[in-house]
Amino acid sequence: xxxxxxxxxxxxxxxxxxxxxxxxxxxxxxxxxxxxxxxxxxxxxxxxxxxxxxxxxxxxxxxxxxxxxxxxxxxxxxxxxxxxxxxxxxxxxxxxxxxxxxxxxxxxxxxxxxxxxxxxx
Length: 121
Fold this sequence. Notes:
By secondary structure, this protein is mostly helical.
């Protein structure tokens, strides 16, 4: 079924034929703001190193520090920010804090980004 144009009637594709494309609407302001905040975690190379280190298995803060080549305090600061955005979760185990990706969606975003960079244009 053709889309209705804002001025009424069917929208016309180039050449005057009715446009059969589905009507598209943009996400709302709240969803856009939420997504922008979520993607901030993926806009920093240090955070990406930390997140990628967590793909295979959960790690302690000191293990993450070593894997990413960052100080423990820098890792802790980054983890606090990512926890607020629900990208990582942290669980106290005795004297250590075990860190992991919050869910498979985070892993998927990382893997899809790497796959996108790896393919030819």
